[in-house]
Amino acid sequence: MTARETPGEQLPVDPVEGAGGVPEPAPVRRRSTSSRGWAIDTSPLRHPGYRRLFWGVAATMLGQQMTLVAVPFQVYDLTGSSLLVGVTSIVALVPLVVFGLLGGAIADAMDRRRLMLVTGAGSAVTSALLAVQALLPGGGNVWLLWVLVAAVSGFTAVNQPTRSAVIPALVGTEGVPAANALAMTVRQVGVIAGPLLAGVLISLGDLFLAYAVDALGFLVAVLLLRGLPPLPPAGHTGPLRLGAAVRGVGEGFTFLRTQPVLLMTFVVDVVAMLFAWPQAVFPELSQTRFEGSPNGLGWLFAGVSVGALLMGLTSGWVSRVDRQGAVVLAAIVVWGVAIVGFGLASTLWLAVLCLAVAGAGDMVSAVLRSSMLQTAAPDDMRGRMQGVFLVVVAGGPRLGDLRAGAIASAAGVSVAMVSGGIVVVVAMAVVALAVPSFLHFRASRTAG
Q1: Which DSSP state fits 316?
Q2: Most buried among 8, 225, 272, 300, using CB within 10 Å?
């Protein structure tokens, strides 16, 4: 891996893109090929530290997804306003963006184990307060709910990039893709099971328990993470100062601008989500094209996650991919083509199948893009890169909802989805031609 020089110093752009002569950071070694099956690679679980991190993630996923269902339900129950439900999404998004970027800089300046413990404990306490407020007279208070939602979002925005940034230290460079596949697969289990369990509890009138499960999950994660060793970035830490953290965010973006490969990991995902995120059209389809299909809305919402979960369970091959850039582009092309098929599907089963294929492509893209960031960025930049990753992952679908909803209202669902999928496919071809360093990026490449 190319060593980064003094903090804040700008590195020249990759010469492939026509600038200076210093190569981008690159992974140091080819990953092991000892696991050759299709089944998900569980070898990272041999590392005691990663086992603690993994089971901590597993403990929080179910409760987090339950809270994502419980909060909008409670807001609508309290206000009767879909507009205020939408406002709640913005209330959660703003701290996610702010603290996602700032938290990444903090994760590059202090012991990451300590930071995970502090933010995990904060999330546990805040989720417990969400459970308590659900017991207030009248079923809660929307203003208090918003404050707590913003707090949970802020803690999560710092915790998640920090968790991702420590993975190379726990499993080594060779184990990063498999470790990411494991974590993302267990997340998909939570995405599917959490809303179903939350729906049962909400139908029984038990919002308190839905929030309490979330608090318990965070508490379990904190207890597990206490067993980790200190995890300072690049082997050292200094005094934490807010001004330095803010400057660190700027340094992260300055560094990112000089690295076409890392920058493209974000750009391709923004394009995929902005032009082909389908969720905004699900309600309309469930009441029009698929009106006669039982639980059509539920199947549409589950489609992408089911495909992602199935791909995760058969992702052994993903951890052995060498030409990661090319496979990311191919996976996003699969996403775009599948969304075109979804837009044209005349039956529910075909629409869900297309969404599942799209979800499988997105899982491959997400695992490899995250792995590229974790292995090709210097250790003292990993927190900031994962902070940007979190913001992109959170913000892209919301922008995609806006685009899809606007075009579907003006020209119809098929036009919105088919046009977006085509744009995604064309855009990936443009990226392959315009940024050859991304297309040719290999995980086995050594620093020059």
Answers
A1: G
A2: 272
